[in-house]
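Reminder to self: tokens first, then the designed residues, so the page reads top to bottom the way the pipeline ran.
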């Protein structure tokens, strides 16, 4: 009997324990169910200690974005970013001048690598592959203390004419106007720049810069007109360059004048040697730069609704020397001006930057992109004192003038087709083509992101 009790008693006790635990769990489930119902009915009635703890939020990681502005990889704290962009321009040219020839060409092919490190340091690296020998177009590092104070080192666009300030993907005509031949393309140096008293973002996003006052001030190796500087100085002399650009009504709220911009830029420095000469103005082979070279350029633009206008005047004054008999020297003062007007036929706002169509090209959805008509007049005057000692009148005209018409079709923010007709007149000189007119029809298909 004792043995039987000894055998069965633990099992009975274990069964009772299980029943107690089951009942306890049932009561706990019932309590939790009541708490849930009470919380649903009145969340404030649930005692803090009984409320379930929320799950811990996952830690943010790096973010990847792909869009019209390119491909961007950004760190979780946003202090590091890498952007991949690009520019591809596929052109054709058709001229009644046999020397130019009719051709299809790859005008520009540029992968663009941009980024930010440790929040305040930006960089850009832009190679160019459309030339016979690949070159570096941009290579700079920029420290950004704030929008009003930034410092840039490397190869960059220096302060110059207004149309060169505008990105080539956004220039209204396929090629820039004649005054651009009087300014450097890229220079190597250091530049302080910034925007003071920023305006409304909705207005500023259409402009070259976002401040009431915008400035650039730099020191560069220096180079000749229409030249892109090499990686080092060719003569050990330096050139100072600066720009002041104002949007006087940016903060006024006067809408018709809010996007009016007025400015002036200039350079001042010594240059020696043939690399200090203009790249696109044909001086004699024995002529070199020899002394002070200064440039000045008043400039302006105005955008109001679908209408836009851009104009500027440029002077490039340079001392030249002939290295063979009669060993003459002179100061050449070449000048030029241009005016470009545009109208968005589809109603978008005109802009200094990229056009964003209201409806992207998509025939299946009834979208045809944005359409824009453009017109331009420009002129270039070559100093008469250059002839015949420093330039051959059979090779270089004393002046050139141009008028042109164009149609731009923005299929979307990244793709644009352009159609241009340009008429040129060349005056003075004695060459067979001098004094004759030249007509040029050009097209472009562009991808820019």
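Designed residues (449 positions):
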């Amino acid at each position: 009997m004792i043995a039987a009790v000894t055998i069965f008693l633990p099992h009975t006790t274990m069964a009772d324990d299980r029943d107690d635990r089951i009942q306890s769990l049932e009561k706990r489930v019932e309590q939790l169910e009541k708490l849930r119902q009470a919380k649903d009915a009145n969340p404030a009635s649930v005692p803090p200690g009984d409320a379930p703890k929320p799950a811990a939020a996952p830690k943010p990681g790096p973010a990847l974005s792909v869009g019209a502005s390119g491909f961007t990889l950004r760190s979780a704290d946003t202090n590091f970013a890498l952007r991949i962009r690009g520019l591809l321009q596929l052109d054709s040219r058709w001229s009644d001048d046999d020397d130019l020839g009719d051709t299809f060409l790859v005008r520009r092919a540029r992968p663009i690598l941009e980024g930010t490190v440790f929040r305040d340091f930006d960089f850009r690296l832009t190679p160019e592959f459309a030339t016979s020998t690949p070159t570096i177009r941009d290579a700079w590092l920029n420290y950004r203390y704030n929008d009003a104070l930034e410092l840039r080192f490397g190869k960059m666009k220096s302060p110059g004419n207004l149309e060169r300030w505008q990105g080539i993907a956004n220039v209204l005509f396929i090629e820039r106007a004649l005054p651009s031949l009087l300014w450097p393309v890229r220079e190597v140096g250091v530049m302080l720049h910034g925007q003071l008293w920023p305006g409304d973002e909705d207005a500023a996003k259409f402009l070259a810069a976002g401040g009431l006052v915008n400035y650039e001030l730099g020191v560069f190796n220096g180079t000749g007109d229409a030249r892109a500087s090499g990686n080092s100085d060719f003569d050990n002399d330096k050139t100072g360059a600066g720009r002041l650009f104002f949007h006087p009504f940016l903060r006024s709220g006067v809408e018709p004048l809010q996007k009016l911009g007025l400015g002036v830029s200039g350079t001042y420095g010594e240059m020696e040697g043939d690399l200090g000469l203009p790249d696109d103005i044909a001086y004699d082979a024995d002529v070199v730069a020899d002394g002070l070279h200064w440039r000045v350029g008043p400039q302006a633009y105005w955008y109001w609704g679908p209408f836009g206008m851009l104009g500027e005047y440029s002077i490039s004054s340079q001392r030249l020397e002939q290295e063979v008999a009669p060993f003459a020297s002179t100061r050449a003062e070449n000048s030029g001006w241009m005016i470009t007007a545009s109208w968005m036929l589809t109603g978008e706002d005109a802009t200094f930057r990229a056009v964003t169509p209201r409806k992207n090209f998509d025939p299946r959805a009834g979208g045809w992109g944005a359409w824009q008509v453009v017109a331009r007049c420009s002129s270039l005057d070559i100093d008469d004192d250059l002839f015949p000692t420093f330039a051959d009148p059979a090779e270089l005209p004393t002046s050139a003038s141009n008028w042109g018409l164009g149609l731009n079709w923005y299929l979307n923010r990244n793709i644009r087709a352009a159609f241009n007709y340009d008429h040129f007149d060349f005056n003075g000189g004695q060459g067979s083509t001098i004094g004759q007119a030249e007509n040029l029809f050009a097209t472009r298909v562009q991808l820019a992101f």
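The longest strand covers residues 287-304.
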